[in-house]
Specification:
This protein is an alpha/beta fold. The chain folds into 2 domains: about 5-75, Beta Barrel (Ribosomal Protein L25, Chain P); about 80-240, Alpha/beta knot (3-Layer(aba) Sandwich), CATH 3.40.1280. Helices cover about 30% and strands about 25% of the residues. The strands form 2 sheets. Strands 6, 7, 8, 9, 10, 11 and 12 form a 7-stranded parallel β-sheet that branches. Strands 1-3-4-5-2 form a 5-stranded mixed β-sheet. Strand 3 (about 40-45) and strand 4 form a beta hairpin. Helix 2 (about 90-105) packs parallel to helix 4 (about 125-145) and helix 2 runs parallel beside helix 7 (about 225-240). The longest helix has 19 residues, at about 125-145. The two termini are about 25 Å apart. The relative contact order is 0.15. Specifically methylates the N3 position of the uracil ring of uridine 1498 (m3U1498) in 16S rRNA. Acts on the fully assembled 30S ribosomal subunit. One of its GO terms (molecular function) is rRNA (uridine-N3-)-methyltransferase activity. This is Ribosomal RNA small subunit methyltransferase E.
Length: about 240
C-alpha cells in the first residue's frame, strides 16, 4: 500500500466490499484538511494489526461514505511491552509525552499523581483530560504508521499504582542519583514498567517507598533531564537495548 495515502482511525470492524460512514471528525478532516474527493483512496487503521484500503464513494457537506477494497496484515509493534507510569506534568509537557511515547512504541500510559497534589486539589475534569490524551495518541499513530493504539489509563495515586502491580514486569524508577543504568539489565526482557517523575522530581523518601514495591532505581546519565525528555530518553534506551530500534 502506498505510504503517501492519507491515514485515518476508525473503531469499526471491516469487511471487504462493505460500505461504512465516517464520523463527524473524520468528515471534517477529509473535507477541510485533506480536501479529498470521490474515488480518492484512504488507508484506515482500527487498533488491529491490519490496515484497510478504502475508496470514497459518496461525499456531502456532513456525510462521507467509503467502501473497503483491500486489507493487509501489518504488524510494526515492538517486541517489548512498555508500561509508562508518568507523574502528571503541565498540559504541554504531558501532551508532548503522550505524543512522542506513542510514536516510539509505548503500550500503556498511566498518568500518576501524589495524594493532595495540585492535580488532585484542583478537581480537574479527568474524563476531559483522558479524551484529549487519547486524541493525541490517535493522531500520533496516524502520523507514524502505527496501527495499535496505546492504552491511556485513568490517573491514579502513584503509590497505589506501585502497590497494585502484580505482574512479573521488570520495574524501573528513573532517578538522577541512582548508580545503576539500563546497561545493567540482562536480556531477555519482554515486559517493562517504568516510572518518570514530574518537574520537581522525587524526594529521597518517595524513591525509597517506590523501591520497596519492587522497582529498581536507575539513572539515564549524568545530566538531569526535564520530565518530558526523561520519558522519551528512557523509552529510546529500552527500545535500543531490548526492542526494535
Amino acid at each position: 500500500m502506498n505510504k503517501n495515502i492519507p491515514r485515518i482511525y476508525m473503531q469499526d470492524s471491516f469487511n471487504i466490499n462493505n460500505i461504512y460512514v465516517l464520523s463527524e471528525s473524520n468528515v471534517h478532516y477529509i473535507q477541510k484538511v485533506l480536501r479529498m474527493k470521490i474515488q480518492d483512496t484512504l488507508e484506515i487503521f482500527n487498533d488491529t494489526n491490519y490496515i484497510f484500503l478504502a475508496q470514497i464513494i459518496y461525499i456531502s457537506k456532513k456525510k462521507i461514505e467509503i467502501k473497503i477494497i483491500e486489507n493487509k496484515l501489518k504488524n510494526i509493534e515492538s517486541p517489548i511491552h512498555i508500561h509508562l507510569g508518568q507523574v502528571i506534568s503541565t498540559n504541554e509537557k504531558m501532551d508532548f509525552t503522550i505524543q512522542k511515547s506513542t510514536e516510539m512504541g509505548i503500550n500503556i500510559v498511566t498518568p500518576l499523581f501524589f495524594k493532595n497534589s495540585y492535580f488532585q486539589k484542583k478537581n480537574i475534569n479527568i474524563s476531559k483530560k483522558i479524551q484529549r490524551w487519547k486524541k493525541i495518541a490517535i493522531s500520533a499513530c496516524q502520523q507514524c504508521n502505527r496501527n495499535i493504539l496505546p492504552k491511556i489509563k485513568n490517573p491514579t495515586d502513584i503509590f497505589s499504582w506501585c502497590k497494585n502491580n502484580k505482574y512479573n514486569d521488570i520495574k524501573i524508577v528513573f532517578h538522577p542519583k541512582s548508580i545503576l543504568t539500563i546497561h545493567h539489565l540482562i536480556k531477555p526482557i519482554k515486559y517493562i514498567r517504568i516510572i518518570i517523575g514530574s518537574e520537581r522530581g522525587f524526594s529521597a523518601d518517595e524513591i525509597q517507598k517506590i523501591i520497596k514495591y519492587g522497582f529498581i532505581s536507575m539513572r539515564l546519565g549524568p545530566r538531569i533531564l526535564r520530565t518530558e525528555t526523561a520519558s522519551i530518553a528512557a523509552i529510546t534506551a529500552l527500545q535500543t537495548k531490548f526492542g526494535d530500534f
